Amino acid sequence: MNYRKFGRMNWKVSEVGYGMWGMGGQWGGTDDTGAMSALHKAVDLGVNFFDTAWVYGNGHSEQLLGKLIKDYKDKKLYITSKIPPKNFKWPMEPQYRLEDTFPTEHMLEYTKKSLANLDLQSLDLILLHGWDDAWANDKRWQESVKELKKQGQIKAFGVSIDRWEPENAIQVIKTGMIDAVEVIYNIFDQAPEDKLFSVCREFDVAVIARVPFDEGTLTGTLTLDSKWQKGDWRNKYFSPEVLKASVEHAKTLEKDVPKHMTMSEMAIRFILSNPDVSTTIPGMRRVENVKANIASSEKGKLDPLLIKKLRSHRWDRKPSPNAG
Ligand SMILES: NC(=O)c1ccc[n+]([C@@H]2O[C@H](COP(=O)([O-])OP(=O)(O)OC[C@H]3O[C@@H](n4cnc5c(N)ncnc54)[C@H](OP(=O)(O)O)[C@@H]3O)[C@@H](O)[C@H]2O)c1
User: Fold this and answer.
1) Is the CB of 222 inside a 6 Å radius of any atom of ligand 1?
2) What CATH number is associated with residue 303?
3) N or C: which end of the chain has fewer CB within 10 A?
């Protein structure tokens, strides 16, 4: 496993971290035994950065992570969770005010809930689960962060940027009040390279690259007939139009996957070829996916000629209510 500096916190985090949304139940139910096996395998292979959120199963994913931590008391594992917006609505809309989403008492309450689920006294990092940069200079959230840090409940603070609007955190980074951003960055979503990453570099803010497989499209396994179990959020996200466009983009990309490489390997290595990324957090529920993604990172950066080719696969999309 390769490790990278996590912005100004100077932590050494595994460049492949662990995305834990899939373990909350919204991805077609839960299999806690399978999830725990995959998590154990990840730690055994060197993963030390974990991304969860209260909303991933109303604490369920956090509780699984809490169990994992107990099994590795001798290892430093970096734990990130997220405070849901008070109105529980994603994505953020311009009419939402800070008091609708992240008022102080709510931020304090949900940090406590996450700590209880994880059975920890202090979280390494907490993120606001959604953000609107119009709030950047509002002193209220800034005071809440100071309070959480003063009480020792969090060591670092950041924001998770809504889908397809990577520039919607530039002002908050410039306040100097955040230590990390979580943003969608992958072969399709290259837009964070335009402006966001240089500001992160300037302020030494860590970059957590999420959704490395575009929710599955970049594994090359989607077809026009793909369907998921009842209750799986992907049935809504991959509407017929989105599924068709996704399959078409993946088909076009397939032509540029080198021999002896899978599309998933290329997807992970594309992200990790960028030194602005501190860690990427694939969603993984199966041991074989854990092993494959770690093996991909160990193969190193992609050939610059391939990266150049992959530039043409950039796919800019507009935020929409279904895509929260
Ligand atoms: N802040 C936010 O608002 C927000 C939003 C979305 C996601 N996130 C975070 O980002 C993480 C990653 O995003 P995501 O889970 O939504 O999507 P993703 O990582 O793009 O895709 C996850 C899918 O890829 C599959 N997969 C993983 N490795 C694979 C491999 N080597 N070969 C084939 N398939 C593979 C997974 O299968 P299995 O599940 O079967 O292993 C799962 O179906 C989340 O888990 C969450 O922690 C945050």
Assistant:
1) no
2) 3.20.20.100
3) N
